[in-house]
Design goal:
single chain; alpha/beta; Spore Coat Polysaccharide Biosynthesis Protein SpsA, Chain A; Jelly Rolls; five-stranded mixed barrel; 11 helices; 30 strands; 23% helix; 35% strand; globular
Amino acid sequence: MNIVPVILSGGSGTRLWPLSRQQYPKQFLPLLGNNSMFQETLLRLKGIKYLSDPVIVCNESHRFLVAEQLNQIGINNASIILEPIGRNTAPAITAAAMQIISHIDIKNSIMLVLSADHEIKNIEEFQKTINIAKVHAEKGKLVTFGIVPNSPNVGFGYIKYIEGLNSEAYEVKKFVEKPDQKTAESYLEDGYYLWNSGMFMFDPSQLLNELSVHCVEIVNAVKLSFNNAAQDLDFIRLDSQSFKSSPSNSIDYALMEKSSNVVVIKLDADWSDVGSWKSLYEISEKDKNGNVLKGDIFTEETYGSYIDAGSHIIATIGVKDLVIIDTPDATLISSKDQAHKVQKIVKSLQKSYRNEHINNRKVYRPWGWFDSIESGINFQVKRLHVNPGAKLSLQMHKKRAEHWVVIDGEANVTNGDLTLILTKGDSTYIPIGVIHSLENQTSKTLEIIEVQSGAYLGEDDIIRFEDIYGRVN
């Protein structure tokens, strides 16, 4: 039977702020190499026999990020399902199962559910474990992967298993919540507990059949949402109203803890969920002083620290066990052991109606990206990077004017009734209320400086009339 990877990539990654933001969360960042964690999740499957095109379930606002990162690694036939709102893993997996049943070979498919933000270093062992799990999933079992623990970690849920089923798959006795330190230590001493990885494998029809018994409300809501889904370019846009009516529940609570048909496969492949700055430090390569250094950094008597210089030089003297993360618009300085509390900072930003938890200064769009270089009262300066062949929407602003200056490349511009070709050094002024557009018809990138002026400069002051990316108002 074929293996259909189902990649869940809807997380927000708040524990890795300020690098991870709501609109560009950790799974899409290259935290451990040149590829993003989302890309590595797919690339580590390369070489597995009978591997089918993947099904991706993601947040609607991340759709172009997903499509671009898939294209970068040569995956062009993925099914991309857009969640209108987060409803935890059970509805997301249910929607993926329905996509496999409706559009992929149902009689010859097993779904492999993976999170987009895990790190697995021993790929050979990982693939070996997948092949073992496949045998049991083909027999109708609901398979979960349990990580062989190497410490009494209080950040994971645990699975207690029973010996005797066979030497590869074990009967699950119970799932348990994240324990306190003393309880976690007792689990490690017991020897029959595994970390709950949040990875699964099962036949999609078997999944829906059992979920219909244990949590039919999810199946009914997602089925209605899936049947009323709209095809939007390359995306499957689930119906919002019916999807929102689904209970918000994890697949563990909704099914795995209730079913008597669950087995667990041990996975010992140097796995990490990269859930905090401390865990990222632990799995990263370190220098002779135990430091992880990324960027332009100078250190003296600095030990055991994770330092990321994102926008300028960082110099440290006489410090130990720190996390220092610098971005153009925010800097985090924390002790390594307390860095997980960064979620409190994110919540404070939300309560203060700030936007530093939502976007980086550099904001990605389907046509490229823009960087907000400077802003003040009634003005904002942006640098626009327009990809080859890309086009901004035909749009109009009610509250701001714009002045475009080409600094590199060639721009085809619509400015009211005018059609212009601008090259390096050329510029055009777009008054308030004038319909305009910008296109890069060349094979090279286009760089523009945009100066905005007006009483209101928010991103929601855009009325789109035409858009090749389907974002028309």
